[in-house]
Specification:
This protein has helices at about 1-25, 25-35, 40-45, 50-60, 65-80, 85-90, 95-100, 105-120, 135-140, 150-160, 170-180, 190-195, 200-225. It has about 230 residues and is an all-alpha fold. α1 (about 1-25) crosses α2, α4 packs antiparallel against α8 and α9 packs across α10. The radius of gyration is 20 Å and the shape is elongated.
């Protein structure tokens, strides 16, 4: 059964890739120019836990390196016996203790706001996987400190939704600028409009756009060596 499910997943992935390439010749050339990617393998490097814990980690990791985020997250879990807390446990924890593991005043406020929204029902964490994309975005961005980018990453990575393009992501915007040879960094609105043709496979398009950013230094180095 597991083998059959894996075969179906691969077949669906190939069909999605073919449809994506057929929708945009420029994107098709980009896809052919980068190494094949496996979205599932890409996701394995991200935090895997329940939805509440994933959002906590998103807050912890804001504007710091992955190494620093992992260190703070480890100390944070240490407050709760080596695991992530429930919303009630988090709110019952002294603010000074939260700051003591390395959380800033702002991040402490954000994490507590997250717990409050879950407890109040404003963020339906137990059924969030059943909600439409826009409703997930609405509920997440209602939490203080969580914006559209965090909501998109949650949809893309944790919920594995197939049609999410984070137009506000700098890497996506830079890749779109190169792909279409724009003389400016496109706005979120411009990226969203360009991405309409990639529906319903915008998540896969985003993975390839990110992957194309990794090829830029190598391409520039090759061009320089040829010019010598």
């Amino acid at each position: 059964m597991r083998g059959q499910a894996l075969s179906r997943t691969r077949a669906n992935g190939k069909a999605a890739l073919s449809a994506l390439k057929a929708s945009d010749r420029k994107l098709a050339r980009l896809i052919d120019a980068v190494e094949p990617i496996d979205p599932q393998a890409w996701r394995k490097g991200r935090p895997v836990d329940n939805a509440f814990s994933v959002l906590i980690y998103s807050i912890i990791g804001q504007q710091i390196s992955g190494y620093a985020a992992d260190a703070i997250a480890g100390r944070f879990r240490g407050l709760f016996g080596g695991r992530m807390p429930t919303p009630a446990e988090l709110l019952a924890t002294d603010v000074a203790a939260l700051k003591g593991v390395g959380l800033s005043t702002a991040k402490t406020t954000y994490i507590r706001s997250l717990a409050e929204h879950v407890i109040s029902g404003g963020l339906d964490i137990d059924h969030i996987d059943t909600l439409p994309d826009d409703e997930v975005r609405r509920q997440i961005t209602a939490v203080k400190g969580l914006g559209p980018w965090t909501a998109d990453m949650f949809l893309l990575i944790h919920l594995q939704r197939p049609d999410v393009l984070s137009g506000g992501d700098l890497g996506i915007r830079q890749a779109v600028q190169r792909l279409y040879k724009l003389d400016h960094l496109p706005s979120v609105k411009e990226v969203d409009e360009i991405g309409l043709k990639w529906r319903p496979h915008r998540s896969l398009a985003g993975f390839y756009l990110w992957a194309s950013n990794r090829t830029v230094p190598a391409a520039r180095a090759t061009a320089k060596s040829r010019a010598r």
